[in-house]
């Protein structure tokens, strides 16, 4: 796993503040040379530090205003087949394998309550899925963020 250093963190913090910034604008904001910024951005992309643009798209704008998390218990020996089946469900946004009382945390989006019921049923029908519990997101209290971590890294200079 790649570790971001304080220079990378400065670039990422500036990029987070202005995702459309040019390399020149990032260089100005960070006080680094254009070549340094360009090289480091290339390295960060190659290493998978910079994730896809998809994370910035609001599912509600695509007609999926409901968000839910489905806690799922599965037969462990069928985990790879279950993951492949979940990958085939378009409304599944992400899946996390967990330790503890439940095996998977499945993040889904839906058009409405009936659609969520359909999606949850489709997941429950997957061979190896033993039990699901669905929690509807009522409100997001803290947005996805990494800026505080970036600030912490840049403060270490």
TrEMBL record:
**PROSITE patterns from the UniProt entry:** HTH_ASNC_1, HTH_ASNC_2
- Sorted alphabetically, which SUPFAM superfamilies does this protein's record hold? Dimeric alpha+beta barrel, Winged helix' DNA-binding domain
Name the Gene3D superfamilies for this protein.
3.30.70.920, Winged helix-like DNA-binding domain superfamily/Winged helix DNA-binding domain
Asked if Transcription is a keyword of the record, the answer is yes
Q: Which domain of life is it from?
A: Bacteria
GO CC term, one of those recorded: cytosol
GO MF annotations for this entry? sequence-specific DNA binding
| Pfam families for the chain | AsnC_trans_reg, HTH_24
Among its keywords, does the record have Cell membrane?
A: no
Assigned keywords, A-Z:
DNA-binding, Transcription, Transcription regulation
- Could you tell me which residue ranges the HTH asnC-type domain spans? 4-65
Q: Name one GO biological process term.
A: response to amino acid
Q: What is this protein called?
A: Putative AsnC family transcriptional regulator
Q: Which organism is it from?
A: Rhodococcus opacus (strain B4)
């Amino acid at each position: 796993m790649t570790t971001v250093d304080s220079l990378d963190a400065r670039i990422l913090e500036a990029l987070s503040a202005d995702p459309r910034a040019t390399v020149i604008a990032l260089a100005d904001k960070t006080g680094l040379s254009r070549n340094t910024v360009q090289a480091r951005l290339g390295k960060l992309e190659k290493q998978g530090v910079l994730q896809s643009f998809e994370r910035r798209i609001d599912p509600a704008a695509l007609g999926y205003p409901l968000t839910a998390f489905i806690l799922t218990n599965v037969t462990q020996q069928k985990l790879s087949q279950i993951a492949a089946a979940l990958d085939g469900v378009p409304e599944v946004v992400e899946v996390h394998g967990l330790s503890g009382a439940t095996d998977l945390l499945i993040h889904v989006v839906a058009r409405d309550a009936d659609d969520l019921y359909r999606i949850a049923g489709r997941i429950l029908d997957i061979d190896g899925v033993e039990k699901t519990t669905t929690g509807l997101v009522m409100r997001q209290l803290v947005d996805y963020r990494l800026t505080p971590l970036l600030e912490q890294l840049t403060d270490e200079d």
